[in-house]
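Input (structure):
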């Protein structure tokens, strides 16, 4: 009879512990695409992500612990990420939660994805970068670095409700990629080149950019009228793709980055279609396509926002 209080105490302890983790990373339905996981304008509303955000900073040590998990997904939330495991998702979530609204700065820049995983080439996909690091150093090293940062700065971590990210008080926002060698170069030109024209700029050396599902091409950027455009070329150095992400750009129909797909539909656009693993897009009467980075075959909701505009041969 004397063991009853101990059993009760143990049961209460386990119940309280189980209640601390209100989310299950293995049940996240979709991961990836445009923006951070907390950017609900881009990401689908996932109850697991909602639970993570509701926990606030208490979720951080639980996510750090999960980095070492190699539980595999039967149906991975990022469908084009080979052999995805729970630890991969935990690291993606943590990285997102500490990025500011530009998606390029953090008060823990040493733990930004590319810096933590020691990126040396822009061409390496995210999963290859992570897998190479794990093979060399192990998942325990990733968890160790995050735990070290948490032990040092955890008490000063605060949620920025305006920018929707965690920041460390007393530390400045710093660019995740201060190395400008990984950025595209650009030139200023007077006239916007058209499809089929000679390239208006010299493609970035050794780099290829995605311009369609499973298609990579050399490319470069040019500024026209204060707006930055990206151009890709074929083997004859002619323009085969033009894109723009600048919100100052407006198509002849008045569609811009940030317009809703309801607005796209009402502009006279053709029915949209999905290019596997690349985008969902609709062609406007002017020839510009309104696109959203989308990883599902079904159309995005009408309230989804245009991520970029493009023309393509």
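Output (sequence):
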């Amino acid at each position: 009879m004397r063991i009853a209080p101990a059993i009760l105490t143990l049961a209460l302890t386990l119940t309280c512990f189980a209640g601390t983790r209100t989310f299950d990373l293995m049940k996240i339905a979709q991961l990836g695409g445009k923006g951070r996981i907390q950017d609900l304008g881009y990401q689908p509303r996932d109850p697991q992500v909602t639970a993570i955000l509701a926990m606030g900073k208490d979720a951080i040590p639980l996510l750090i612990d999960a980095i070492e998990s190699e539980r595999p997904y039967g149906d991975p939330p990022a469908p084009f990420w080979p052999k995805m495991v729970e630890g991969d998702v935990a690291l993606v979530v943590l990285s997102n939660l500490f990025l500011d609204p530009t998606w390029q700065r953090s008060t823990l820049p040493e733990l930004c994805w590319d810096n933590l995983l020691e990126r040396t080439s822009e061409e390496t996909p995210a999963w290859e970068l992570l897998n190479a690091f794990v093979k060399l150093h192990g998942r325990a090293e990733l968890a160790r670095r995050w735990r070290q940062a948490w032990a040092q700065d955890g008490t000063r971590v605060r949620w920025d409700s305006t920018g929707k990210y965690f920041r460390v008080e007393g530390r400045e926002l710093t660019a995740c990629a201060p190395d400008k060698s990984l950025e595209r170069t650009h030139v200023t030109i007077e006239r916007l080149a058209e499809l089929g024209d000679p390239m208006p700029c010299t493609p970035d050396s050794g780099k290829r950019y995605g311009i369609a599902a499973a298609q990579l091409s050399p490319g470069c950027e040019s500024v026209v009228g204060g707006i930055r455009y990206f151009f890709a070329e074929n083997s004859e150095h002619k323009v085969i793709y033009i894109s723009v992400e600048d919100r100052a750009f407006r198509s002849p129909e008045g569609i811009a980055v940030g317009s809703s797909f309801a607005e796209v539909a009402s502009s006279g656009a053709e029915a949209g279609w999905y290019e596997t693993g690349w985008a969902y897009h609709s062609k406007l009467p002017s020839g510009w396509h309104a696109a959203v980075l989308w990883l599902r075959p079904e159309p995005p909701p009408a309230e989804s926002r245009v991520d970029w505009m493009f023309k393509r041969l």
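Notes: The CA atoms of residues 67 and 281 lie 35 Å apart. The mean pLDDT is 85.
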